[in-house]
Amino acid sequence: MAHENDARWVELMAAAQNGDHRSYAQLLHEIVPVLVRVVRRQWPMGQATEVDDVVQETLKSLHSVRHTYDPARPFLPWLLAIARHRLADEIRRQKRTVLREVDIEAQDETSLGFATNSEYGGAAYGEALKRAIGRL
Question: How far apart are CA 58 and CA 36, in angstroms?
Fold first, then answer.
């Protein structure tokens, strides 16, 4: 997948590898929208939060392995390989979760058939409570 900014990203990544924090920040700023589009396209069933999670995991992985990037090679294919692996990890994680979890029907937090705190109701309880507090 060729991208018009790949040559620029190669330069930014090479500068980042040499300790240029501004170049690294600029690179991250420019690649996030591309990563979001790619992950959405590869995972159309993914929710927005799930797509964001994959993008964040990709950025974390990029940060961890940035020293392995070879500036003599295109940047985008290297980045997309990382993104594909993080997406595969997320899909596998979700499949494992689905196999372990069982959906249950939503239940009311209280039973409508019983009055709550019925033994403590009424004016007598209020008066007894006031007397008890007064004794303290």
Answer: 10
Comparing CA positions, the residue from 16, 15, 9 lying closest to residue 32 is 9
Q: What whole-number distance in Å separates Cα of residue 27 and Cα of residue 20?
A: 11
DSSP 72-115: TS-HHHHHHHHHHHHHHHHHHHHHHHHHH--------SS-TTS-
Compute the chain's Rg from CA coordinates: 28
User: How many CA atoms within 13 Å lie on the side-chain side of 100?
Assistant: 6
Amino acid identity, residue 60? Answer: K
pTM above 0.90, yes or no: no
Average pLDDT of each block of 10 consecutive residues along the chain (136 residues)?
A: 84 96 97 96 93 97 96 96 96 81 68 59 72 84
Distance CA 124, CA 132 (A): 12
